Amino acid sequence: MDLMTGMKTFVAAVETGSFTAAAARMHLSPKLVSKYVGQLEDRLGVRLLHRTTRQLSITSAGQLYYARAAQLIEDLDTLEADVRADVAGLTGTLRLSAPTTFGELHLQPLLLDFAKGHPDLTFDLYLSDRPVDLAEEGFDLAIRIGALRETNMIARRLAQTQLWCVAHTDYLSQYGTPDTIEALCHHRCIRDSNSRSTTAWPFLVDGHSSRIPVDGPFMVNSAQVVRNLALAAQGIGLCPDYVVAEDVQAGRLQRLFPQAETLTLDIHAVFLENRHLPARVRAFVDFVARRLKQQESFARLQDD
Question: What residue stretches are annotated with the HTH lysR-type domain (predicted)?
């Protein structure tokens, strides 16, 4: 038995909880799995697993060895994939998560363009406004918009977006145009429940953050739905500019308070720390960052 085979067999036994399940993963017999783990223990001179007739339990030495061995195996697999990618192109599955509206409007077209240049890659895109747990749910990366709350992540800023206050001219004709942000409290506001507060909207007043109380008949969990309701003259919406910029440019929506300072949000790609990024992940993030910089609505807010 070579050392790497022993390590992989031990890791499989820990993760599956039995020699039988580990044997199925490793395409070995349970007897051979037991033999390889025993040989690894003999090599180390310590007991890694307690065996009973019904289950396995890991020792304290086994816990230490498992953590390092699992990371080494992952690093080796990544290294091999990177070397193959340099010769044969990107392969494997890229699993990523993104907020729903951003994913539908901007990430999906970029994903399609990236896929055209990498025919041997497969993609697993999960769109949700719920922040996923990368480690627990097995994602390579996630897109986050706004302040980052995780402390165990590595983040790369891809772009920025501003929140725009918008309304349809039919709504403004019926209810009047608010002349100050404080006047929003007297209007029908379409609230997005994905925001940190559904009862107040953030603005910058004299360089200081201020939250303006709002209310209205509609509360939804999608910026795209906020935009659609605003287009239907159902109220005033607060949306990321990447959702409504084309509508404002085309005259379908009117931007309110264009001279007022509005909240700017960073758009990040986030990864687990202490993990070597596979070549497919690095290549995709570089591609998305480059393409977003070429789009006017994103590029105008970014540093050079």
Answer: 1-59
Secondary element (H or E) of residue 173: helix 169-175
Instruction: Please check the confidence at residue 143 and state whether its pLDDT lies above 60.
Output: yes
Angle at alpha carbon of residue 294, lines to 132 and 194, rounded to 5°: 30
Q: Where are the beta strands (DSSP E) in 140-284?
A: 141-145, 153-167, 189-192, 200-205, 208-213, 219-220, 236-240, 254-256, 261-262, 264-272
Residue pLDDT, tens place only, 226-238? 999 999 999 999 9
Distance CA 90, CA 48 (A): 37
- What one-character DSSP code corresponds to residue 199? S
The model carries a pTM of 0.69
All structural domains of the chain: 3-87 (1.10.10.10), 90-150+268-299 (3.40.190.10), 161-264 (3.40.190.10)
84 pLDDT higher than 90:
no
Q: DSSP class of residue 292?
A: H
Q: Mapping DSSP to helix (H, G, I), strand (E, B) and coil, where does residue 65 land?
A: helix
Percent share of the chain, pLDDT over 90: 53
